[in-house]
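Render this sequence as a predicted structure.
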Amino acid sequence: MRPQLIASVLFVAAMTGMAPPALAADPNPLSVHVLDLQTGQPSPGIQVDLERRAASGNWQPLGSGTTDEQGRIRALVPAAALNEWAAGDYRVVFRTGEFYARQKQPSFFPEIPVVFRVESAKQHYHVPLLLSPFGFSTYRGN
């Protein structure tokens, strides 16, 4: 927006008691989506942990979240770790064993680690997981 337009919007908001429009914040750089291949439905309630590979080769935790009713975590990088998001190797670990145990369904993979490389911290990365009790597939989404 041009400076004059921004000033006008803020002036009108102040005079009328309206809240000024929120300026767009940077979107979270990482999201995930889990779909059940057997049912074609989302997989809610799966814990997903985010880790970054340190220079030593060890994995350092950055955050975690739980998939919502649509099987999504739209913002996996916690606000406190956004300044640490940089190019490098990351891992998301889908805790699928706990998910299937709650459903009283056997599964072969108690967890599914997906390692991926961030080339640019300015891009958004999306990691979909297509899941069944005895198999999975993943790819780089958008």
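Summary. Confidence is low (pLDDT under 50) at residues 5-24. Strands lie at 30-36, 47-53, 59-66, 72-73, 88-94, 112-118, 125-132, 135-138.
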